[in-house]
């Protein structure tokens, strides 16, 4: 299969850290060519196809505006359109899927299978795992989508992202969402083996704990903050032991920090904040504006706590915000 037409192959596969290869039962995938330490940015790229996705009607015209070499690269990507996507297309175009021109069906199916908000030349080759080793995030300063490895990777290992928000979902719940991409997940958390079933038990426990949190969410007493903190501690311990160290872990730290602020446990607040910063360091990189903002907050908070001063206003504001748990936008 030709992979290199049209583009300069995005800095020769991100300076040779990675390569495309067949991944058994998954089509093409992205593999490490060398050992890669945690926190390494393996890909930073601008979109191959960017679409204002208020309506699927915008997808084909956006493709038609691309220069021919980019159209060619786009058409090499894998396509899959599930029933839900097809029915949205049918509703919006007023035509049956089969009556659309073949090229339009292809362009639409590629979009459906590959969008991370936009479609990418390298990033869109990443396969899914429910225990991913890569986190992706848009960096507004670089104006690029960036992909960082979140564990140490050994040469030859496949790099994977999580297509859904799957940390606290059971296998059935995850698979239901993954059917959009037309595959049955067989990652280590989904395989029907002793190890897979043990992993599934942990997901079931995480789901049950998140339900407990939801039941407790409206209460504003100290007791309820303590309960929520305990639940968060149990959740993040499971997440870490299962290698679920993407930004969903950081969200758990954030929520734990918020409980500590409510309980005036300032040393613990600082400790959770520093854990958040560490996850951001390896998941989004030190040049990401969100990392820099949190670094400033952690620094001013440490100074204040060391001097027995009140928690600074910027930190109070930060922990009042509702931060999205989403780690995946696809
Ligand atoms: C974003 S693309 C990933 C790259 C793709 N494998 C290729 O050949 O270009 C998404 C598609 O990859 C396949 N895929 C991704 N993760 C998979 C997995 N864990 N198991 C099987 N197929 C997978 C599915 O066909 C899915 O629709």
From TrEMBL:
InterPro entries: SET_dom, SET_dom_sf, SET_domain_protein, TPR-like_helical_dom_sf. Residues 16-164 form the SET domain. It comes from the Eukaryota. Pfam families: SET. SUPFAM superfamilies: SET domain. This is SET domain-containing protein.
